[in-house]
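Continuing the batch. This is chain 6 of the set; chains 1 through 5 are on the previous pages. Same settings as before, nothing changed between runs. Recording input and output for traceability.
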Amino acid sequence: MFYTHNRISRKVYDYCIKNKIVDASLIAKWKKTGYERLCSTYVINPANYKFGTTSICRVPLNDRSREQMNAIDPTTGCMGCASGKDASHRNIFGNKYGQNLAAVQIAREKRMEEIQ
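Output for chain 6:
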């Protein structure tokens, strides 16, 4: 809401980070290319997975084998947060909530302003 939509002030943003209401390391990763849709820093930590790799959800769908197409990370439940060109357009958690929630809220607010 701070960087993408400018809906909260710097003061509120800093307060949330200071009081650990938000994950500062995850927000820092979102700013980097290829991590825009990252659901958790857990899935990119090689120490958390066998063979020093990352979660299957980090592999774009077009790069997965037929057997891996429906793979879900057992810890986060993420179905595929890989970012970038040709990444999946579906919601990463397979439900109506998730990564697009802020954009939906902004669209609702704009629509309400137009009505009034």
